[in-house]
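Protocol step 4 of 6.
Sequence for Ribonuclease P protein subunit p29 (Zapornia atra) entered exactly as in the expression construct, tag removed. Do not edit the line below.
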Amino acid sequence: PQGSEEAKAFVNAFLKRSMPRKNEEAIQDILTRKAVVLEHYPKKKTKLKRKKTKGFTAKQRREMRLFEIEPEQQRYAIFLPLHELWKQYIRDLCHGLKPDAQPHMVQAKLLKADLHGAIVTVTKSKCPSYVGITGIILQEFKHVFKIITKEDKLKVIPKLNNVFSLEIDGFISYIYGSKFQFRASERSAKKFKLKGTIDL
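Step 5 output, structure tokens:
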């Protein structure tokens, strides 16, 4: 058993450890009372800062040629399965493309749809050499379509001043490239307004 002095020293030391923010006089004042309420000071948790994964810049992507299609991959037959997938995607998006489907509703959905895999034809253009080019869209950028033709040639067609047509299950839709200069990701969230007359 501890003596009174040892017990007193133990209690003083214990209170100093338990109440580090209080000075000696405050602790002695507490000891004169019958009840002592010990305070708890939780340790401040240091928040770990998450490092944001920085993507590549546009310049780095160009230097690494991330979006380049290798010459040996530039074959029309390779991308025909992609076109079949795209057709199924559009049928699901438009609930089957039934004969009684309202054209403006289908058109509204096509405006926001992903066009990678669609077969398009340039029907009108201010540059006559573009007219008649048909192929599968491999890449869509803000200002251009990259398409592969049946002759296994990769063509870069600007959207500006060109009108494209795409056909699926008998439904033909026209894309006015000058009004379509958005990235695919931006297009899905954009609200298109109906306009009476549209020109090149």
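Step 6, annotate. The chain has six helices and six strands.
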